[in-house]
Amino acid sequence: MRFRFTRRPGRGYKVHSLADVLVPSVWKQNYQNGEFFRDKIVLIGPTADIFQDTHRTPFPAKEIERVNYPSEMLGPEVHLNIIGAVLAPHIPA
Question: Domain tally for the chain?
Fold first, then answer.
């Protein structure tokens, strides 16, 4: 199904390492014991190249600053864009 991307690949959605979330000292210092995530939508998914979870997007490669996958988007990022499109239907066509 088609949808309108709300962000370009590699922009707009911050990636946080699951390892950081699982280390108690980092969890406390960087995420204020989870308060950082309050009222936010959080998706957990693979971002390592070994998973090959990348998807082509309609964005031209020359406008993207990512080196490895200039016009591709990580799987979790695709899902975040779909959620963003649903939550922000006011974006003009």
Answer: 1
